[in-house]
Amino acid sequence: MQNTCTAIVLAGGQGKRLFPLTINHCKPAVPFGGRYRLIDIPISNAINSNIRKIFVIAQYLTAELQHHLHQTYHFDAFNPGSLDMLTPEEKPEGEKLWFEGTADAIRQCLNTILKDPAEYFLILSGDQLYNIDFTKMLQCAIENDADLTIAAFPIKEEEAKRMGLLKINGGCFLTDFIEKPQDKKTLEAFALKESFFKKWQLKQKDDCKYLGSMGIYIFKREALVRLLKEDPREDFGKHLIPTEIKKGKAVAYLYRGYWEDIGTIHSFYEANLALTTREYGIDLYNEKNPIFSGNSHLPGPKIFSTQIENSLLSEGSIIQAKTVTNSIIGVRCQIGFNSIITNSIIMGTHFYVPPTKLESGLPERFGIGENCLIKNAIIDEHVLIGNNVKLTNKNNLTLYDGEGIFIRDGILVVCYGTTIPDNFEL
Question: What is the pTM of this model?
Fold first, then answer.
């Protein structure tokens, strides 16, 4: 597997729908689950599948992402592998061409990528959540001698309108593809037949009647090169995938587990809070298939007389709050006495601040002060919240733009590095 397949992680998008978290982070570098970054998910799944040669293609706010990758993923002679980050390069004539889409990004980096001798290339997104054994997907590609294999699973109608839909024949070969269909006639044409559920031994659900593309592809080496040259357009989903399916050697790999595309503040918020329950969400507790991230070498969380319920607390956090309920508390997070945290994501900080102000002008501390009420909120890294602050969206706004504070989908978001004074309310 190691020499057969190489992974390419697409991490270059600006992530406009995840604004305002993407003001200061590229989307794949956004913190997730208290101690991870979104990009840790696809990379970890690849490594756990013994795919240990990985390219990451990025272009927007790359410094933080590059630092994280360098600090987290190490290979050597006894633990062979490689992880290379590719970004837009200046051409000999002085021109710097930015990536215009997913296919264009790989096309512009193709000379470097093809120095790897892999027979197959696994193309992944840097902002999806899942636990997938890619060895099974590669086996599907090899057994069917497929030029293209697309990971897919049954989805509901509301999901179908924001994803690519697949149509298959009696086996697993693809016959048609459409990106984000909106009209009822097209949706009906792509609806799954009862025979599909019988063949794949799935329970037929009335609300899951379409086969959705997960945006995860395995290409044969020759097929990828040929397609990128034959179809000069910029995007896989909108352009190149339909082109390749018409050639008749594309198959669907049916996935049966959890998958989530982090496209909006609402989906990001829900995917995080799903970790506080045992019912749904990505599995972070499988020691055979761990999700890797940087080792902070911090002690366990220090908790005073705080009532904790259905929450995830990360290393190095110091919790003096009254209650923490249905929330995720990030690395080195500090919460003052008598504060109440409910249904919120507190991302923490990269370092502690000494008890006296530094010459650099940093605040005395990061974190949440005393007697605060934080509800239905996302607090980004390195935020200082004073005492007696109430962040509850008391007017039930769905949209709000302030100085370092925003509301999207009814969820209150405090941006990286924001300072909120004592007694502030929103």
Answer: 0.92
